[in-house]
Amino acid sequence: MSFPGQPPIDTHSINLSVGGMSVELQEPPPIGEPLRVHLDLSDGEPVEISALVRYATTITAQGPGIPVSVRSLVGLQFQDVSDEVAALIEEAIENSEED
Fold this sequence. Notes:
Elements: E1 13-17, E2 20-25, E3 34-40, E4 46-63, E5 66-79, H1 83-98
Antiparallel strand pairs: 1-2, 2-5, 3-4, 4-5
């Protein structure tokens, strides 16, 4: 994924749906910030989708012998998803549920 004027960020999706997804990031972006999401789906062809940041929640984790980790859970809403891309996302979701 990439924000305008910034280098791409590698992350993994959480709760992927046709309408959007959540990701974990080091720093929370501003709510409403536009970005481009690059998804590698089940057919092997990457797709690019416009999205907007809808929420950002701070996550703090710590355990025995593990230092404090602070990250942001960021909710993204996809914009103008074509029928073709929506079908690819649905297929990727179905395939991940079968694994």
